[in-house]
Amino acid sequence: MSSTHHQATHDTTRQQLFGRSDKKATTPSATQEKEGGKGRPTPTRKEAEAAARERARAVADKKGARQRRSSDTRKMREAMRSGDERYLPARDQGPVKRFVRDFVDSRLCFAEFLLPLLIVIMVLSYSGSHQASSFGNGLWTATILLVIVDTGWMIVRLRRALRAKFPDESLRGVNFYAITRVIQMRFMRMPKAKVGIGGKPK
Which of 3, 36, 112, 202 has the maximal Cβ count within 10 Å? Predict the structure, then answer.
């Protein structure tokens, strides 16, 4: 009986020790489950609503920015056709740039025929005829010389006119701006021409 009592006491002590240990081991896990299951507190209803409002605001801001960009792009395209300087790209804005465009558009320059002439020269060069190829090479040389001389003289006259009309304005970049416009065929120029050949720059 003493042996039985001793065994019972030993089992009771073991259960108490292990039971206490198991209880301690499972307590943090149970606490984590209670706090949100992933080691962070479960957000309150107020916090969840605030987060939802913030997400909705971010989506609305993104959509609004996209709509504004689309509207600005549309206005810029329309301005390139109408010449409305409020919505032109920065490189085309200002009275100096407007004068340059009008000055170039009011003259018939040889450079604006450069692209069609290049196509003709390529056709002649690859025609298979030695005579046509020789003519194409000669036409190429003549075209380049004429474009250089005509465009150079146009730039000289343009800068003279700009100095007279805008004595206090910077003329930086006007040469490149004029050249990039003059080598385009008239119907391809953007912003669209506001004066015709023989017209007066404003």
Answer: 112
Say if residue 172 is exposed, middle or buried (CB neighbours under 10 Å; 0-12, 13-18, 19+). exposed
Q: How is the chain split into domains, by residue range? A: 2-81, 92-188
Burial class (CB in 10 A: 0-12, 13-18, 19+), 161: middle
Question: What tokens appear for 57 in the block?
Answer: 């605001």
CA 125 – CA 123 distance, rounded (Å): 6
Token look-up 């609305």 returns 60
* Three-class secondary structure of residue 89 per DSSP: coil
Q: Determine how many CB atoms are found less than 10 A away from the CB of residue 127.
A: 13
Each residue's pLDDT, cut to its tens digit, for the chain (202 residues) gives 445 554 555 555 555 544 444 444 444 444 444 444 456 677 788 777 788 888 888 887 777 777 666 665 765 566 566 666 777 888 888 999 999 999 999 999 999 999 999 999 999 988 888 899 999 999 999 999 999 999 999 999 999 999 999 999 989 999 999 999 999 998 888 888 888 888 888 7
163: CB partners within 8 A, 6+ apart? 171
